[in-house]
Amino acid sequence: MNLFSGIEFANKGFFWLLIIIPLMIGWYIWRNNKLQGSLRMSALKGFSSGKKKRSYTILRHYGIVLRVLALIVLIIALARPQSAFSWQNSTTEGIDIVIATDISGSMLAEDLKPNRLEAGKNIAIDFIKDRPEDRIGLVIFSGESFTQCPLTIDHDVLINLFKDVNNGMIEDGTAIGMGLATAVNRLKESEAKSKVVILLTDGSNTTGSIPPMTAAEIAKQMKVRVYTVGVGTKGYAPYPVKTPFGVEYQQVPVTIDEDVLTKIANTTGGKYFRATNNEKLKQIYQQIDQLEKAKIAVTQYHKKTERFLPFALIALVLLLAEFLLRNTIFKGALT
Fold first, then answer.
1. Among 118, 143, 112, 140, which residue's Cα sits nearest to residue 239?
2. Which parts of 198-277 fold into alpha helices (H)?
3. Which residues, other chains included, contact 138 with Cβ-Cβ below 8 Å and sequence gap of 6+?
4. Beta strands 95-102 and 135-141: pairing type?
5. Cβ(84)–Cβ(304) under 8 Å?
6. If 0-12 CB within 10 Å is exposed, 13-18 middle and 19+ buried, where does residue 52 land?
7. Predicted confidence pLDDT, tens digits, the chain (335 residues)
8. C or N terminus of the chain, fewer CB within 10 Å?
């Protein structure tokens, strides 16, 4: 059995006393050399019994060995070894989240870097990585909407599908109502106590068979909380346009329907955010992360048992053995 298995030390500072060990050994060697002498004799006949005492001469060093071992074990005892055993009962209330992201042509504007779409993807992926316990899904919308990834706990698959999202996958346009309705529909069968949609867009609803507020009412009835994010600077944004001479940039107006996005959020108990740059968008996801933390009830149990006594007894036995040996069997070798 390993004496140190599962052992922790309450007073680790006492291990500094181990510095005494080399000093103690050094002093012993120096003192032993001082006590040694030499004597020249013309014959060794009268010292024939020296071979019998040689073993005693070697064994007399066992005294320092036992004292060193006793000191080491005593220091370990002073450090208060403890066996630590702990366990916990925890229950996690999962949160189901669907990210609904706009992939319309205007999302290629470069007021966020490298553009709105890529910035939104990268920051959302970081958000997903920080929530390993939640089921997360992905809906994309433009002129229409569809589910890129259903709710899943396999975030590696989700992230790979997110990376594959590009403008042009579906007909262009901005169907905010359709995107929200599709996201809410993905949560229809969810049994999670907290259901969330993060809807990200850079424009206003221009197409689709479902108005944004109708989708918001459906979300409210299904107890789905919607956080809306308007992406884009204020005023004008640089937009890349392909020409026969290469890519040129035009300044296009930013037209985010903040009133509708705010109403959607308020209707469902969520919140509206405006992201004018990458850092702001990152902060928004961090705020949502804090607002939607999973509820974890944890009961922790800790049990510690003092284990210094065996070490103290070992030190006592070593010192007692050194005392008995020095005054009995090896007495002749030490005098």
1. 112
2. 212-221, 258-268
3. 98, 99, 101, 147, 148, 149, 158, 161, 162, 165
4. parallel
5. yes
6. exposed
7. 455 556 778 788 888 888 888 888 888 778 777 765 555 555 555 545 544 455 555 556 667 788 888 888 888 888 888 776 555 555 555 799 999 999 999 999 999 999 999 999 999 999 999 998 899 999 999 999 999 999 999 999 999 999 999 999 999 999 999 999 999 999 998 988 899 999 999 999 999 999 999 999 999 999 999 999 999 999 999 999 988 888 999 999 999 999 999 999 999 999 999 999 999 999 999 999 998 875 544 455 556 677 778 888 888 888 888 778 777 765 654 44
8. N
Residues facing residue 249 across a β-bridge:
240
For 46, half-sphere exposure in the C-beta direction (CA atoms, 13 angstrom radius) is 4
Q: Where are the alpha helices (DSSP H) in the chain?
A: 20-35, 50-59, 62-78, 116-129, 155-163, 176-186, 212-221, 258-268, 278-291, 308-327, 331-334
- Tokens read off for 321: 């053995």
Contacts 24+ apart (CB under 8 A), 289-293: 289/127, 289/130, 289/131, 291/227, 292/95, 292/97, 292/194, 292/196
CA atoms of 187 and 182, how far apart (whole Å): 9
Express the helix, strand and coil content of the chain in percent, nearest 5 each.
Answer: 45, 25, 30
Residue where the block lists tokens 């020296």: 50
Say if CB 196 and CB 98 are below 8 A apart: yes
Q: Torsion angle of alpha carbons 176, 178, 181, 185, nearest 10°?
A: -140
Token digits of residue 305: 């048992």
